[in-house]
Amino acid sequence: MAVMNVCVTVNSKYMRYLYTMLLSLYKNNNKGSIFLYVIQRDFTEKDKKDILDLTEKYGNHVEYIWVDEHKFDSMPAHREDRENLSLEIYFRLLIPELIPDTVDRILMLDVDVVVNHSIKELFAMDMGEKCLGAAPNMCANFIVDKNFRKWYPKERTHWIHYNSGILLWNLKRIREIYPRDYLFQMAFKYKIEISTFEEELFNIEFGEKDILALDPLKWDYISTRVNKFIKPNFKKYESLEELKSGCSIVHYAGLNPWEAGAKDKSFSLWWDYAKETPYYYAFLEEQLERTEAYISKKSKDVDQEIDVQTLSLLFRFKGTEDLKRLLNEEKAALYLWGMGEMGERFYKLLKSVNLQGKLVGVIDEKKSGMFHGLEIMKKTDVLEHIAGKKSKIIVTPIKNQCEFVDVLAKSMPLNIEVVGLRDYLIGLSNEL
């Protein structure tokens, strides 16, 4: 069986995301077919053992290559204005000299990808005299930005821009025509003024004629940017099923699933693999912390101080007898205002304890039709519908929720209580 060489440049902080990516790679390729090179500067012994155990489980091999970070101290790319990108991204410039001379070809992968199918076809592509294989950059709508062309050679005529998250290296060819440290030395030549320094460098040096163009729909589909693509005739996957079937490598550039949860359907691919790792609950806790920090900031932006616990309370209460008891004791008729994501979450919360019947009405100014068997009402219909009843309207929109609740409450009769979903759940929590 032919072995496929794969490399990553990563630090210890991102090890668990690397683990998730590798799980997707190993599960979708034949056992024993991958030789992994991990280029790093700070992996702990535990990091190395965890990756080794996973790799050997699938009959594959791993080798760790250490890089001296001080090599980059004077590099123009490693500056304070690029602190949003880790130093390891620049280790890619050293791949021709770090990878053993016996390796003629290697596939470099970002950690923020899911390998959805076998990479055998990609790795075996005929590269001819090309130095790299890369997909036209979806984030740039395939074209080098006119504002960036100032650091490209003046005689440049080919303006396709390539993404550097997935790179197939023809090391044999590169070593034949360039010194081993060529890319590293070229980093000092160009005055590149954007944070994606190394990507621009690859495009400057190889983009004119030395990159084999890969199909981005198959090998580097940047799912986080599909709604911003403007290239004529650009195709995007309209469903998760279509994405799973047609795309071999999904790339979450710019917005990672572990940062943004499942707001994008394609993120569920990553979370499916994350569930199989030892870090799944750590990922969930991290997601809750980010969400609550974001909501807290938004609340402070409108001069509100809130103890934000919505999502964690949903997890804590789900399926518990305490929640069922407290909701059964709720005397008011429950109405839900807002049929967005949090409205769906609250409904599922009720359904998980067989109390969806406690919800007797739903309200949304922007939507119409039915919501789980209940007709969606408008604000003008609410007062007539609940006249004479003791009622509680639970407001679900997260953004500026407290301000919204205050405005709504002032327009309702005294027998109607208006409360934010967070505060409602927190109130239930305090009764336990």
Which terms would index this structure?
single chain; 432 residues; alpha/beta; seven-stranded mixed beta sheet; six-stranded mixed beta sheet; 18 helices; 16 strands; 37% helix; elongated
Question: Would you kindly provide a brief summary of this structure?
Answer:
This protein is α/β, with parallel strands linked by helices and 432 residues long. The chain has helices at residues 15-27, 45-57, 95-98, 120-123, 171-177, 182-186, 197-206, 216-219, 240-246, 257-260, 267-274, 280-301, 310-317, 321-329, 341-352, 379-385, 401-410, 421-431; strands spanning 4-9, 34-40, 61-66, 105-109, 113-115, 132-134, 166-170, 211-213, 221-222, 249-251, 333-337, 359-363, 370-371, 374-377, 391-395, 416-420.
Structure, described:
The structure is a single chain. This protein is α/β, with parallel strands linked by helices and 432 residues long. Helix 1 (15-27) packs parallel to helix 2. It is elongated and about 85 Å long. The protein has 18 helices and 16 strands. Helices cover 37% and strands 16% of the residues. The chain has helices at residues 15-27, 45-57, 95-98, 120-123, 171-177, 182-186, 197-206, 216-219, 240-246, 257-260, 267-274, 280-301, 310-317, 321-329, 341-352, 379-385, 401-410, 421-431; strands spanning 4-9, 34-40, 61-66, 105-109, 113-115, 132-134, 166-170, 211-213, 221-222, 249-251, 333-337, 359-363, 370-371, 374-377, 391-395, 416-420. It has a 7-stranded mixed beta sheet with strand order 3-2-1-4-7-6-8. It has a 6-stranded mixed beta sheet with strand order 13-14-12-11-15-16, sandwiched between helices. The protein has a 3-stranded mixed beta sheet with strand order 5-10-9. Mean pLDDT is 84; it is low at 302-309.
